[in-house]
Structures are given as C-alpha cells and as structure tokens.
Amino acid sequence: MILLLTKPNKYWILFFFAIMLFLIFIFSDENLHLRVNQYHCSFFDFFFKYVTYLGDGLMFPLLIVSFFFYDKKQSLKFFMAALLTLLITFVLKKVIFLGVPRPIEFFGADKLHLIDGVKMCYWNSFPSGHAMSAFAIFGSLFLYVKSKVLKKVFVVLTILAAFSRVYLSQHFMLDILVGGLIGTAIAVWSNLWSNKLWDDRRSLKTIWVWKKN
After folding, report:
1. Is residue 168 exposed (0-12), middle (13-18) or buried (19+ Cβ within 10 Å)?
2. HSE (side-chain half, CA atoms, 13 Å) at 17
3. Would you say 180 and 132 are in contact if contact means Cβ atoms under 8 Å apart?
4. Which of 6-15, 84-93, 201-210 has the highest mean pLDDT?
5. Integer Cα distance of 137 and 153 in angstroms
6. How confident is the model over 167-195, as pLDDT tens digits?
7. CB < 8 Å & 24+ apart, contacts of 197-203
8. How many CA atoms lie within 13 A of 134 on its CB side?
9. Secondary structure letter of residue 59 according to DSSP
10. Please, are residues 49 and 120 in contact by the beta-carbon 8 Å criterion?
11. Do the beta carbons of residue 91 and residue 169 sit within 8 Å?
C-alpha cells in the first residue's frame, strides 16, 4: 500500500504492526493486556485519558470543514475516509462481531487499573473504532503533507491514539491491530479514489467548457 511505500518512515506502520503481532503471539491477547495494564502512573493516566480523543470520530467533521475552505480535494478525501470508517465500524462491531467483551467485562473491574473520569465500555470490543479512525485520519494527513517533520509527528500521534485504547482498558491489543490495519487501508483507498473522482470531475468540466465554446 502507498502508506507502506511512502518516504520517509516507509516502514513505520509495518514495524508497529509486527511488534503487536509478536507480543500477541508470545503472551496471548488476554495476558498481554494484563501485563500492559500493570504499568501505569499518574502522568500516563492523565496523558492517555486525553490523547485518546485524537482517534474520536468527531475529528473527521472538523477536518472536512477546515479543509473545505483551504483544499477541497483533501476535504473530499476526509469525507470519503469518514464514510468508510463509519460504515465498516458499524458492520464489524454491530453486526459481525456484536457482543465481543471488552477488557473490563472480560476480566472484571477489580483486576484492572482504571482511570477516574473515563467512561468504560463493556461490549463490542472488536475491532477498535478509535484505532481505525486514528489511522484513517493521520494516515490521510501523512499522505497529504510534504514536511518530514510533520510526517513523523503524525506517526507518533497515530500510535499514541491507538495505544491509548489499550492503556485505558477500552480494547485489547488485537482490537487496535485490526482497527489500525483497516484504518490504513481506508486512508490509502480514500486517497486513491478521491484523486480519481477529482480528476474525472475536472476532465468532465473541461469537456463541457470546450463544447460550450
């Protein structure tokens, strides 16, 4: 996929997914979650409590509206990514994998470190919608910007937003792995399809103007 081949950081996502797969294979998804959950402190409790909002679906309309006045083509890409993310999340979480328990339901609240003020969800764990949104959003931004520094920033924000779901015990590692893979595919597909739609639109407009004259 384009995101895996774009320089710089062409291997960042592959490395991130490979590490998660390795850890899940070694420890199992459930044991891995308990191991991660035991490492916590007040700083990270506060940090991940708010970083997790970077993967919120509300980021999409903010970006769509913002880019509409600056770059309509990119606004279209975010619109397509938002529709795909919403549709795929609904089908997977509410239809195919309906009722899959989240960590707090699977282990019980007494076995987990939970953070005050975080509203916990109990069901429909697989895959992570936040991770899917984060990878779709920041993957789209990664493809859009030219700055190497900004690309690195988006890489870090993506990983932090996805990992926050595990730290907050809202998801298992496998949930964010699959959500991240799907989100990456959404970013790439939205970029390619939106480019095609935009180019076709301009071609049709050019033909119409030519015939009119």
Report:
1. buried
2. 15
3. yes
4. 84-93
5. 13
6. 999 999 999 999 999 999 999 999 999 88
7. 197/76, 198/73, 198/76
8. 28
9. H
10. no
11. no
